[in-house]
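Continuing the batch. This is chain 6 of the set; chains 1 through 5 are on the previous pages. Same settings as before, nothing changed between runs. Recording input and output for traceability.
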Amino acid sequence: MNLYEKLADEIEEAVRRGVFAPGERIASVRQASQHHGVSIKTVLHAYALLESRGVVETRPQSGYFVRESAAPRAARKTALAGAVASEVDVSRLVLSTLRSIRANDAVPFGSPYPDPSLFPWRRINQYANAIARRHSSWNLIDDLPPGNPELIRQIARRYAENGVPVDPDEIIITVGATEAINLSLQAVAKPGDTVAVESPTYYAMLHAIERLGMRAIEVPTHPADGIDIDALAEIIGRQPVAACMVMPNFQNPLGFQMPDARKKRLVELLAAHGIPVIENDVYQELYFGDTPASTLKNFDTNGLVLHCASFSKSLTASYRIGWAMPGRYRAQVEKLKFLNTLTTPSVPQVAVADYLRHDGYDRHLRQVRKAYRQRARIMTAMVQRFFPAGTRTSAPQGGYVLWVELPERVDSMRLYQAALAHGITIGPGYMFSTKNDFRHFIRLNYSYEWTAQTESALRTLGELVAQMA
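Output for chain 6:
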């Protein structure tokens, strides 16, 4: 291979990998000569070859630029489709799915995130900018754990309005609900302990257990009633269980709202055995009914419920403001917060507190709930229309995800790969269990606006399912 051909291949590979974006200027002839240690003549030959291949184009008086069509969409999707090995590793699968959502033109059915266009992020950013201008330097001591006092007051006020008895002194601000869950788990269990979880369950809870060297034991979970309390009682009777982790409201991926009687029974069962329960309630404000759902905290008389939530699903995902109400474990969680991350950034806390105080959070939530309720109906109807016989869907009572059971012959990993090749992301069932119990299930996100593109993508997905079935 000639030297100029080698140089051209290196640049083309860099373009294919996204080092140089379409429309971006590449190094001048002189710069390339210096950087690669070759003659100007060699660079000119290489650039001419790249032009002939359609990778770059010249612009008079400006230089060489990557052509808009240099990284074909099909090539990008093919690369994404090969991102996960055939042997499923849940952590790698989740990371690959999250990365694939960022691909150009990818339809985000697999996204765990809500549609950001529904959030008042510009208004919250205005508050943050105003705060930054007012305070050229911020006293870090002000927002050491438990966090900003006004934000804590606003959160406590919110719970009081929703009928949940809360002591503001119990609230600890965290970096999103994920940190709240991790800190709570550290406070109640140690490496080697067994933690009971729903099955299927949200993968972030499995990650927390794995990262801390604990063992998850999966408990069958009903798509309308929640965790099987009798099965959990049987497990507790035959082996030590250090803690339980559940999502009683609008569970991800099933979308159910656990009935109050069952919430009360679950809390009583665990209290009888002295077992703490970590309640992930990040979707609590996204209910489809007329009134807010109760929480496990409503039925806790022993301080064994560690309640975790955030604003990431209802107000702003970018600021990652969460909190924990850890009951009798409050002192330990506060200490762990200090040891792990010291503080939660101050400006986002104050900006969110200012929004809650001044800007009509309830009005915003009504709009979001209405949008999600409508989009849930549309997504459910379209799955029933486009997918083959034998497909069944959950009936979400809130949140923004739909759990879909496919015909048994369909493997969700194969479907995941095939969908990526068409620029469509999904959440394969493998992500929601440490076992293979949900190999023919997928999770779909319906929070985004329904468009001709999303309808076409769902139709294509249904065709792929039909082929595999």
